[in-house]
Write a structure and sequence with these properties.
Length: about 500
């Protein structure tokens, strides 16, 4: 037995002088640099007493060092636990308590506060900054660049990624070495990635899309990437002549289309544009094809499963669909309540099974059990149907989830914050069509009698508690919420009533 995931990368690694990554500050890493520096960082982790299976929680800005830290964690046999840089201390506290990390790597600006937060737990708090004395990068620079990778098998954990739950509590999806390796291999084949590819990587690296779909695919193909800290449409356009592929959330494509310079010529060197994490509107797909001559390839995945389906590389990329199940992955549509498979063409719950599907939620056996069928299929919470040609259409969500600019927002979490305020009787948080973010987080609030609480008060109370992307873009006050005979709030009626509030003017 060796290190299952890193060996998979290693087996396809190109010559050491080949470029792996070029950052937007001009720094670059070859494959040889990556091997040497991830080895040094793995040594530094072991010096912090990280043992196989220990969690290493990471909340840092995107940088070459952050990518190396991910690989160092894999090589050191630890479990990588990335956290959105937008998370507040209030949000972080829950993750640290739940995951009990051995090491927490964070930005220098947060180190003292996080240190106080986890004082009793014995977790070690370190920073990553490359100029900071005593930081992990600094300690790594003094280590050997040879490292004997810690042995890890296919079922051992490589990462835990938190994904919010409908109850408001985040669940840690446990992803094994084989979950990640198998999916990266399949995607390289399906999307025809090779060592000649240059990916424009402008996604954050704390979620599945930027970390596993983008970075793992590049590593598994021996390709290279232009590693951008921020998505800046003008800059992305300027990189296209040097690149071959782009992966993005639909907001990337919407914003790029607003650039006059986006033309067939501008995209002339590119061979593939991929979209995922949220529904790509058919109109965006059409507009992109008209402007660039390229049909965007849409795919569908989840934190728990990595990628499940993809439109074909060769063959029709059908707008408004997420394509066909990937090789080795089974997908079926079932009756959401009974769990019985439905006939082709019927709408129901999307369930998936395959080597990509996670083992369960960290320390939540009951939740895990509830989301798997006895025959091993995972219940995604997405509603869909399969057309006569086998293309999967996602037609809605069985789960109460908003996706804003590719980030998932669970209404319950925001409703709990708002409901706790003096002056609020109750609230309902909904997603409403938004021209930029796909869906805009919108709060519908009922005041307590006599209360004068306003949108500003609500914004002030949430600031500092919830990550910015979760904040309602609009707060609407009503006398009462619509309810059905069972007393359940009818969010569909609210979504209908406010469907035009973000409509583009003119
Ligand atoms: C930023 N803001 C947002 C979002 N991002 N608000 C709602 N939704 C968002 N996604 C806030 C900012 O804090 C700011 O607030 C205001 O909106 C405008 O910011 P702006 O500068 O326009 O935003 P940005 O920094 O350009 O970011 C937009 C973005 C970013 C580039 C689309 O959100 C992004 O990188 N999204 C990708 C997320 C992702 O990787 N998802 C994959 C998850 P203020 O003005 O008040 O300061 S993995 C997944 O979903 C599955 C597995 C899958 O299938 O891939
Ligand atoms: P998460 O696991 O939190 O990152 O989000 C996964 C969810 O994003 C899925 O369950 C879907 O609801 C949604 N999703 C991902 N890709 C797509 C897509 N191409 N079209 C529609 N929804 C998508």
């Amino acid at each position: 037995m060796t290190n299952h995931l890193f060996d998979a990368f290693r087996s396809r690694m190109p010559a050491p002088e080949r470029l792996l990554l070029e950052a937007d500050d001009g720094r670059s890493l070859t494959y040889g640099d990556m091997l040497a520096r991830s080895a040094q960082m793995a040594h530094a982790l072991l010096q912090l007493d990280v043992e196989p299976g220990d969690r290493v929680a990471v909340q840092v800005e995107k940088s070459p060092e952050a990518a190396l830290l991910y690989l160092a964690c894999v090589r050191a046999g630890s479990v990588f636990l990335p956290l959105n840089t937008a998370y507040t201390l209030t949000e972080l506290e829950y993750f640290f308590e739940d995951a009990a990390p051995r090491v927490i790597v964070c930005d220098p600006s947060k180190a003292a506060e996080i240190g106080r937060l986890v004082e009793a737990s014995g977790a070690v708090v370190v920073t990553l900054d490359r100029n900071g004395q005593g930081s992990l990068a600094d300690q790594a620079s003094r280590q050997s660049s040879d490292f004997h990778d810690v042995e890890r098998g296919s079922d051992d954990l490589a990462a835990i990624l938190y994904t919010s739950g409908t109850t408001g509590r985040s669940k840690g999806a446990m992803l094994s070495h084989e979950n990640l390796a198998s999916n990266a291999r399949v995607l390289v084949d399906c999307w025809r990635f090779s060592a000649d590819d240059v990916l424009i990587h402008a996604l954050p690296i704390f979620h599945t899309h930027g970390l596993f779909v983008a970075t793992n695919v590049v590593l598994m193909a021996g390709a290279s990437m232009l590693f951008e800290r921020k998505f800046d449409p003008a800059r992305i356009l300027s990189l296209m002549p040097r690149a071959t592929t782009l992966m993005g959330v639909p907001t990337f494509y919407v914003r790029l289309l607003q650039q006059e310079a986006l033309t067939k010529d501008a995209a002339g060197a590119m061979r593939l544009f991929i979209s995922g994490s949220a529904p790509l509107l058919a109109e965006t797909h059409r507009a992109w094809r008209d402007r660039t001559g390229h049909a965007i390839l849409e795919r569908y995945g989840m934190t728990e499963t990595n990628m499940n389906t993809s439109n074909p590389y060769h063959g029709e990329r059908r707008a408004g669909t997420v394509g066909l199940p990937l090789p080795g992955i089974s997908l079926r549509i079932t009756d959401p309540e009974a769990g019985e498979p439905l006939a082709q063409g019927e709408i129901g719950m999307i369930e998936v099974k395959g080597p990509n599907v996670f083992g369960g939620y960290w320390r939540m056996p009951e939740k895990t059990k509830a989301e798997f069928r006895p025959d091993g299929f995972f219940i995604t919470g997405d509603l869909g149907m399969v057309d006569t040609d086998g293309y999967v259409h996602i037609v809605g969500r069985g789960k109460d989830l908003i996706i804003s600019g590719g980030y998932n927002v669970y209404p319950k979490e925001i409703e709990s914050e708002i409901d706790a305020l003096d002056g609020v009787s109750e609230s309902a948080v909904i997603g409403v069509a938004h021209p930029d973010f796909g869906e805009g987080v919108t709060a519908v609030v009922v005041r307590k009698p006599g209360s004068a609480i306003d949108a500003g008060d609500i914004a002030d109370s949430i600031a500092g508690r919830l990550a910015k992307y979760k904040h309602p873009k609009r707060v609407i006050f009503v006398d009462e919420l619509p309810r059905n005979t069972m007393g359940k709030v009818q969010k569909n009626l609210l979504r209908e009533a406010y469907k035009d509030i973000y409509a583009q003017k003119g």
